Amino acid sequence: MQEYRANANKIKVRLCDKHEDQPYNVGCRDCLSLCCVNCLSGLKNCTSTGVSHQLCSLEELSSELKQDIDALTSKLGNKEGEWASLSKAASMLLSDFISETERFVHCLHKTKDEQIKELTSRYENLEAEFVKQRQAIQAKISQFIEADVNEDCSNFFIERSRIAAKLRQNHQVCTFVNAL
C-alpha cells in the first residue's frame, strides 16, 4: 500500500487505445472505463449499471479512488485489530478447553474408591444444602400462612361482631314493632 502511494504521483499519461494521439481524460465512476474526448460520442452504456456512464475527470476519479482506498485501508486496519482480538479470545478458549480436558482425564484416572468418596462427599454437601433450603422455604411458607390466617381470623371476628351488633339492632327493632 505504501509503495502504491509512493508511486501514485509518478503516474504516466496513457494514450487512448483507439485514438493513439489523445490522452485519456475522463472515466466512469461505476465501471472505471477510461476514454478520450474523441471516444465520448461512441460510448455505450456502462457495463456495471447498464445505463449511461457516470463520467468525471481523471483527477476527480483518481481522488475518489484514493479516498476509497484510504477508507478500505482503514477498515482493513480495524479488521486486523478485530482479528487479533478474536485470535486472542480463541487462544484463551483453547487454553481453557485444554485445562478442562486435562482435569477430566485426571479425574478418570482416579481409582474407583476415590471417585466414590468424592461423589459421596458432593452428594452429602448437596443434600445438606437442599435440607437448609427446604427448611428456609418451609419457614417462609409457615410465616406467610400464619400472617394470612391471623389476618383472616381477625377479619372474621370483626365481621362476626358487626353481624352480631346488626342482629341485636334488628332484634330490638322487631321487639319494638311487636310491642306496638
TrEMBL record:
<keyword id="KW-0863">Zinc-finger</keyword>
<feature type="coiled-coil region">
    <location>
        <begin position="109"/>
        <end position="143"/>
    </location>
</feature>
<dbReference type="InterPro" id="IPR000315">
    <property type="entry name" value="Znf_B-box"/>
</dbReference>
<feature type="domain" description="B box-type">
    <location>
        <begin position="11"/>
        <end position="58"/>
    </location>
</feature>
<keyword id="KW-0175">Coiled coil</keyword>
<dbReference type="GO" id="GO:0008270">
    <property type="term" value="F:zinc ion binding"/>
</dbReference>
<keyword id="KW-0862">Zinc</keyword>
<keyword id="KW-0479">Metal-binding</keyword>
<protein>
    <recommendedName>
        <fullName>B box-type domain-containing protein</fullName>
    </recommendedName>
</protein>
